Amino acid sequence: MGLLVTFFVLSILFSFLCSILEAVLLSITPAYVGIQEQEESRIARDLVRFKADIDEPLAAILTLNTIAHTVGAIGVGSQATVLFGETTIEIFGTSLISWEALIAGLMTLAILIFSEVIPKTIGANNWEVLTPFTVNALKVMLFVLAPLVWLSQYITRHLKKDKDKPVLSRTDFLAMARIGTESGVLEENEQTIIHNLLRFSRVRVKDVMTPRIVVIAASDAMTIGEFHEQNEKLPFSRIPIYHEQNDNVNGYVLKDELLLNLVEDNASKTLKDIRREIIVVHKTLPIPELLDIFVKKKEQIALVVDEFGGMDGIVTMEDIIETLLGLEIVDESDNADDMQALARKNWEQRARRLGIIAKDDEAPQDQSIDQDAEQSK
């Protein structure tokens, strides 16, 4: 009986240990590993190695767990046979079950509860506290079981189809952000930013630009004084200017520079005299690339052109930031066939917020300031 109990306890004990180690190892987050690296803790180096090649410690855990189950099952089974033989449990003279079968069933139940459910729950809930112990225990196990671990890794390495496949996809991150919001870890606006950021690379300039039909522009022949009289309360800091026709945008002017010239009694100067060059981009340019251009050239506005080189609209740094921080990002899976109409709708919302148009008004069909050009349309 003593050997039976010994085999049983040792099997459950080692299996209990392996389950805790596995649960803790799989629960350690990349952020925790990064923090340990920054703090230069004594477990940081081994922790980085284990998480970088997680197959190695898992192979050691599974190897020891398999040995514990196998040896325990053989030991308990053989001792049960010696002690009870082929005898059965009888009640009122009726044979119900053999002692060997009963002990095998009890051991299976004990393994399920005491070496799977309980230890894995403990490991998952207390992984931060148990991490140092786990790292040290894995170092010993890897040393003792080195030949078996090497054999296991050799086999799994050659069975893997895609060795470089990332563990997490963009969809996984989106799902985690949603779950984080539902559980209260993330705020709603934080989830929106993460969601938009992960889809940022698929957004094109045409998806966020202000369409040509609602662009506020001025003729480069207009004087600074005339422009100020007609647009004294204009909220924009950068105003596109055009030559002769409002589609022929050839630059932009800064509102601050315009006001400075008024103060210096230069109201007779034309907008062309204070014109700045404007960046020209194609409407299919990805937003991340446009952001790089803005940062490198220290600009905040660009002219958007179509495949024929004609003006399609205007895009600003504000459009990019609003897209990233809250405006809905639309891709090919969304029900929005007319991206220009969507951009116009977004512009109308922004314009109402800034007071450019009344809340109940429709967006103007043309916001060109030059009246002659407007009459010629």
Describe this structure in words.
- Helices cover 58% and strands 10% of the residues.
- With 377 residues, the protein is an alpha/beta fold.
- Helix 1 (2-27) packs antiparallel against helix 4 and helix 2 (30-39) runs antiparallel to helix 3.
- The radius of gyration is 35 Å and the shape is rod-shaped.
- It starts with a helix and ends with a helix.
Please state roughly what percent of the residues sit in beta strands, choosing from under 5%, 5-15%, 15-25%, 25-35%, 35-45% or over 45%: 5-15%
How many helix segments?
16
State the end-to-end distance: 103 Å
> What structural class results from the helix and strand content?
alpha/beta
Form type: rod-shaped
- Low-confidence segments, given as residue ranges, are 329-340, 361-377
Helix content: 55-70%
Instruction: Note the main sheet.
Output: 4 strands, mixed
DSSP strand tally? 9
Task: Kindly provide the radius of gyration, computed on alpha-carbon positions and rounded to a whole number of angstroms.
Answer: 35 Å
What string gives the helices and strands in order?
HHHHEEHHHHHHEEHEEHEHEEHHH
Strand order of the largest sheet: 3-9-8-7
Tag the structure with descriptive keywords:
377 residues; alpha/beta; 4-stranded mixed β-sheet; 3-stranded mixed β-sheet; 16 helices; 9 strands; 58% helix; 10% strand; rod-shaped
Question: Can you describe this structure in just a few lines?
Answer:
The protein is α/β, with parallel strands linked by helices.
